[in-house]
Amino acid sequence: MPKNLQDTVKLHNGVEMPWFGLGVFKVKEGSEVVESVKAAIKNGYKSIDTAAVYKNEEGVGQAIKEAGVPREELFITTKVWNSDQGYESTLEAFETSLNKLGLDYLDLYLIHWPKEKSKDTWKALEKLYKDGRVRAIGVSNFHVHHLEDLLSVAEIKPMVNQVEYHPHLAQLELHDFCKKEGIQLEAWSPLKQGVLLDEPTIVEIAEKHKKSPAQIILRWDLQNEVVTIPKSIKEHRIIENADIFNFELSQDDMDRLNALNKNERIGPDPDNFDF
């Protein structure tokens, strides 16, 4: 189990990825994202997760510059958007993202959603990986059948699959498949956009441990061996979210949290979305 905020999991290609990071979905470009990322880095976060479609890569890049932490200590993820999928267009989208971030390389580049063109997109990611432009490549929002389809043509197996994951959506089949294939599961929207913070079982376990409901959920992620990237724009919350390395959930706590699963999403279903 990770012992602190800087602890990493070794991806199947040997690259070390922090277990815990900051997501910036829906964080506004400009001072909001700059201050959020700087606050995270100042308080020990190493991993920042953005995406082309979030339209805040420039702000993330500015924050990285202003934070004054050596680039090699950070782990920066971005994602290729659906309209840029395909071989050549992905290579172009990568350059655009890299320029906006002001970086020479990325730590992780993901296909944001499974599309018809994802196999061609994957070929582009493989090229970027072989060329040393990105240290690890992966996918986001892929179900088992999407992964199987990709693996049928992939020369390099995805290192990460970032999906909606929280106690109401435990993704058991997907989690098992990814473990078997050596693909690291990563959670987006781990708090179900705040919906889970009032869940009575979670509140009760939080009171027992003298922790917040958010801390209980994020600890559950880690004990299930899932990388997690909660989003916040408030510094005190950014600090609080990461304060989860000084306690442990018991097996009974874990069983109760696991029992909350109802396969319920707050985001779109990867089998049925129109963007």
UniProtKB/TrEMBL annotation:
PANTHER family: 2,5-DIKETO-D-GLUCONIC ACID REDUCTASE, NADP-DEPENDENT OXIDOREDUCTASE DOMAIN-CONTAINING PROTEIN. The keyword Oxidoreductase applies. SUPFAM superfamilies: NAD(P)-linked oxidoreductase (SSF51430). CDD domains: AKR_AKR5G1-3 (cd19157). Belongs to the aldo/keto reductase family. This is Aldo/keto reductase. It holds the Pfam family Aldo_ket_red. Residues 30-261 form the NADP-dependent oxidoreductase domain. It comes from Cytobacillus spartinae. It comes from the Bacteria.
